[in-house]
């Protein structure tokens, strides 16, 4: 509680005070806020990845399971948060933290977030959100326009229409993907004769009525794990997510897609959606969207594009062609908390047809009455915050050309880093960057030569040891706390589809410099030297291979 | 963009500046933040519900569908937000805004939210959240303890266990309810012989394997609309949400529940869950949880309690008995953004058994690796913010006894308001408050007498006109902007189950005074006088009834 007294006390008067707006700049809270801002700025400026302390140690500060029976002063608690939480959190905005889809954020979002938190609107209904509702509808309209570029008349007619929705603002890409596939599933089994629609009667009766043996969602083997989750939640089962082969560039193989769709039809399995990926999570590649669209049209099925990460590229007039064909999709997922530089919790799904979401429309007597413009009637979530406001602000403050500069710079940087890696004799670029994501590994020239030469068990054993080394480097780099790359597992064709652990970097942070990229390679090289046991094992096998033993 | 120049320009250097931590207290951003705080404080202090402007007018400010092609200065944009958004948003924290489950928030949440936004952790995985992960696990543990009160050994063993989860932090109660029912559905159809489990093979094959004709979720007719949405999403269909009758106190009728379960079994329909409600959204009543638990045990089915709103009552040692039996539930939904006074976006679902969530566990190679403590492997959502931090802070700053005072005060206030309404000859209390929610309507004594006396068509006509008057009053009170009550539709037994529109109030805001409650009744009385046409129609019918015509 806020108080000048020495010990915090529980009484109703002091409780009322914490709900009351603090007076002027001398108030305790204002002072706490100022000192907190200073501390956070310090943390954000230090450009160092979080202090390394084993999770087990950190957990000791969070082991109490009983709710506190005595109150704490805000000032004391703030200090406690700085000591136990802030100092052991991850500096996701650090320019050398390039392992995940995080970045530094525009700093104006800090004061503007205050509006969102202070007003605490609930977007589920107009009565608790008022102007935030048209604002969110406009944000969805602008994104719709960026993807589908319909004319003015289209947006005048649909953007603010009570019975329609151009999409939904969600807490993230997973909910966005689930929403898209929920809509696709429901539209695939509409009411018909005595059947009242899958939304009313469920999958079991839907399949019986339409005489199908099963339901499928078809996606490249590089699809995000949220799609598997969607298949589970939606009641069709994870095995009904049918994987399609990918080519050497991690793009969906169209012939296999056609074959799979035909096979499913033959087996009386209804494909509710084909999902194209615009920016795979692990390699950053984009499926041939226009070609998939044509196949979907031929097979009369919903075409969803998961552009959670890559969708921001549409802001770049220079590079948006990479996503050509996205305008043919029935629905698209885009995350604003990825390369649109908005804080965590801002996903979106857009639908080409304003009528698409009718099949998931819900109403209730005390809210979401029919005819109201309540956003809650077309969403998976219920109560929601005014997060759309932050995207609205960035759209205006940065503007489309500003976003274009950021996107272009990130692609240039990825190209630069790919070239830099290729120039090193002891590193290997595993996947080329199509957007700003690439993968690579550390492999000294003599090891690489041996791996090429080797066959059978030795080849696999050597590959396994190199994987161990990659893992070792990644882990120790993280622990050193200077920089962070993530890792994942691929099966590159050039290495006979052997399981290959790689470093994965995403160059979305505008503050990441070329110098940082050089340093990251140097650091990895140094760490490799500090793995004598692994190195020895590798060299032993390399020798054996070279000597033909 | 932040700049001293006259026009905002798009160039990469100025873009980089917006990603950089502002220097010291003289920086433009710091100044904007200060003036913004002042403006927001003014807005929050004025204690007046949002300025009334027709939605159609507000929409004019949000009709552009093309992304801005020129950037705007942060200062200009902030002013634009204040003019077009803040001034037309809803003052949900106003003490006279008592229509929905909103309230004033503790003011310390403003500075503390900064930590959440600035650190921008992603709770899906440890690599981007570190200390936030044990913190969230602890928050879930404390809530689990509040509900289930297991011993220390239990929490030491499970709270931070990588393979287990005591629940999930969600964006809201809807996602929490969906998660609970997803788990219940999956656990109801486990792998068995050749069948690999519903999560793998879906509902259609599950029902075939187990030889069922359908799936049901059973809940009182007062269940929240999110349950219908859950039934739809989960693929069992909205019609599979089987409603059970309620008694005169809006509580589930146990005999009917038993009968429904028996009927479903006879029809070879598998009940995956019975949902008990701890605080119905429209009347605030609590189902007899212990009795429902016994019935669930007998029928061997999952017992879920939707305590999204009422769960906070567990903080009160004085009143927690109202929820007796909740500790027997297999899962419980609680929203922290309702009466735990946290900003929008903080729902939770807790599971009694730490193994329950295994049936929805998901993994992926680049994150959520097996054995990691990543929270993302047991959640419907993927990327998520560090919202749990704000609840953690309130648990410490307010503490359990502080929450108890707040809860107790809100129940006392509801009792006071109910008595006040009952004392008025021209108001009628329609539902008694069990928690801090009640419903009532305006009905002058001569109208009430006539309604009692009337029969047939005249009774219904009169009731319809009274409904029109209630609607009129609610609408005009909202438009006057001094206070806000919501409205809903009930079918009270005392009025022969005729459709009855009522005012609905939730007295959660600690700053709502008795004076405000008096004023609200007075204002409603005054508004009623300003409805001469409706009043005339009502009086005409009343006269006809009285004269026996």
Descriptive account of the structure:
Two copies of one chain form a homodimer. Chain A has three domains: 1-90, no CATH class; 131-397, Type I PLP-dependent aspartate aminotransferase-like (Major domain) (Aspartate Aminotransferase, domain 2); 402-546, Aspartate Aminotransferase, domain 1 (Alpha-Beta Complex). In chain A, helix 14 runs parallel beside helix 17 and helix 16 runs antiparallel to helix 18. In chain A, helix 12 (289-299) links the parallel strand 4 (269-277) and strand 5. Chain A is built from 18 helices and eleven strands. Chain A has 549 residues and is of the alpha/beta class. The first copy, chain A, has a seven-stranded mixed sheet with strand order 1-7-6-5-4-2-3, with helices on both faces. The longest helix of chain A has 25 residues, at 399-423. The mean pLDDT of chain A is 92.
Give the CA-CA distance, first to last residue of chain A. Answer: 74 Å
Biggest interface found = A-B, 180 and 182 residues
Helix content of chain A: 40-55%
How would a crystallographer describe the biggest sheet of chain A? Answer: 7 strands, mixed
What is the subunit arrangement here? homodimer
How much beta of chain A, percentage-wise? 5-15%
Reading side by side through the largest sheet of chain A, how are the strands ordered? 1-7-6-5-4-2-3
Fourth CATH level, the homologous superfamily of the largest domain in chain A: Type I PLP-dependent aspartate aminotransferase-like (Major domain)
Mean pLDDT of chain A: 92
Tally of domains of chain A: 3
